Amino acid sequence: MDIKYKETTSADFFYTLNQRVNDFFKNKHLSPKTNAFGVFKAILFLLVFFALYAGVIFAEGNNALLLICYALLGFIQICIVLNLGHEGVHSSFSDKKWVNNLFAYTFDMIGSSGYLWRMRHVYSHHPHPMIPEHDVDIQQTGLLTFMPMKEPKSFFRNQHIYVPFLYCFYTLNAIFKRDWEDFFSYRIGTKVVKHSPLAVFSFILSKLLYYTYALVLPLMLSGCYWPVVLLGFVFMHIMASLSAAVALFPAHLYEESIFPEPNEKGEMNTDWAMHQMSVTMDFGTNKNAVAFFFGGINYHVVHHLFPAVAHVHFPEIQKILEQTAKEFNIEYKHRPSLRNALHSHWLLLKKNGVAHMSEIY
Questions:
Q1: Which of 98, 104, 326, 343 is least crowded, fewest Cβ atoms below 10 Å from its Cβ?
Q2: Where does residue 28 rank: exposed (0-12), middle (13-18), buried (19+ CB within 10 A)?
Q3: pTM here?
Q4: Residue 232 Cα to chain centre, angstroms
Q5: 31-35 long-range Cβ contacts below 8 angstroms, 24+ apart
Q6: b vs e for 248-279, b when ≥16 Cβ sit within 10 Å of the residue's Cβ?
Q7: How many Å apart are CA 100 and CA 77, to the nearest integer?
Q8: Alpha-carbon dihedral angle through residues 353, 355, 358, 361, given to the nearest 10 degrees
Q9: CB–CB of 293/79 below 8 Å?
Q10: What is the 3-state secondary structure (H, E, C) of 183-199?
Q11: For the segment 108-155, what is each residue's pLDDT rounded down to a tens digit?
């Protein structure tokens, strides 16, 4: 079933907002793609990545050096995919298609799949955020629930305690299980996907190349015993997993999250922009470090409304968005800090782990 949103008219909020954002770029003589600062960050994170990887490969038996470099690699990998890969799949980094496509493959550098990520993110999550069965990012696993349930499993009442530990294995699950299941199920959400023979070959090859560079070569060349290398590999993924969870989960999954559903005809009761506003939250937008490392993902309302715009422009667009929302008397969801956003996510887990609010207390 296809999702249908109400039409936007010239009197609507998004029409005005879109005009103002276009005027901003026109009056400032700016491109909506990245600027010199964005290019600097791309080069910086890639250089740090290769320096840390060299520390793993040339550890020469220094276990401490190998473990530290592996752990830091996990964090830098998330910085790379959020600053480069994320913008690559949205074609927001450059006007040149080949540059965007190249950066999309940074997901393959960390063991995931740029090909799959584009389909999940651009063709499922962004058009239909928080809509059950249509947004693959909120698919349930059986171990936890983001959505309220009439009869949640009994152990869900403790999910706010154990789920943060599950998050430690988020990327390991993705590269060893979820990617393979998604690819060979030939489905992304409700969409049937037909992979070309080249796509199948590229997917398998990219996985093998990742396992080789991230694990096999360190086992062969680092001079460290294999249990230490395996531990470092796990450390890398724990750091990457927690970094990804911190950056990605609070923007949609917070205490007041809603999960709107279409009617039997697939029709939503709002237009596309109002849906994005109702299910998305910004956080920590006054903290430059969050935006620097996580590619402006904390300006998430802005990103969902203008996905083709590079994140380096988000602070200015956020000001326009906040003012326009105020004029139209539309709620703009925002948490003042990353800590507040994470606490709100934890409250969601606690609240939806039980059937009735009275059970929380």
A1: 98
A2: exposed
A3: 0.93
A4: 24
A5: 31/95, 32/92, 32/306, 32/308, 32/309, 32/310, 32/313, 33/92, 33/93, 33/94, 33/95, 33/310, 34/87, 34/92, 34/93, 34/94, 34/310, 34/311, 34/312, 35/310, 35/312, 35/313
A6: bbbbbbbbebebeebeeeeebeebbbbbbbbb
A7: 17
A8: -20
A9: yes
A10: HHHCEECCEECCCCHHH
A11: 988 999 999 999 998 899 999 999 989 998 887 789 999 998 888 999
**Token pair for residue 246?**
């911190």
Dihedral of CA atoms 345, 346, 352, 354 in degrees, nearest 10, equals: -170
CA-nearest of 8, 269, 275 to 130 is 275
Tens digits of per-residue pLDDT, 309-358? 999 999 999 999 999 999 999 999 999 999 999 999 999 999 999 986 55
The set of long-range contacts for 158-161, using a CB threshold of 8 Å and a minimum separation of 24, is 158/353, 159/349, 159/350, 159/353, 160/346, 160/347, 160/349, 160/350, 160/353
Task: Report which residue type is found at 205.
Answer: L
Amino acid at 337: S
- Residue for token digits 């990887």? 53
User: Does residue 153 contact residue 162 with C-beta atoms inside 8 Å?
Assistant: no
Q: Token pair of 129, please?
A: 């955020």
The first and second tokens of residue 231, run together, are 């531990």
Q: What six digits make up the tokens of 290?
A: 């969050």
Amino acid residing at 51: A
Contacts of 338 (CB under 8 A, 6+ apart): 246, 250, 283, 284, 287, 290, 298
In this structure, the number of other CB atoms found within 10 A of the CB of residue 354 comes to 18
Look up residue 7 and give its DSSP letter: P
Nearby residues of 146 by Cβ (< 8 Å), 6 or more positions away: 138, 140, 253, 257, 348, 349, 352
> Which neighbouring-strand residues pair with 283?
335
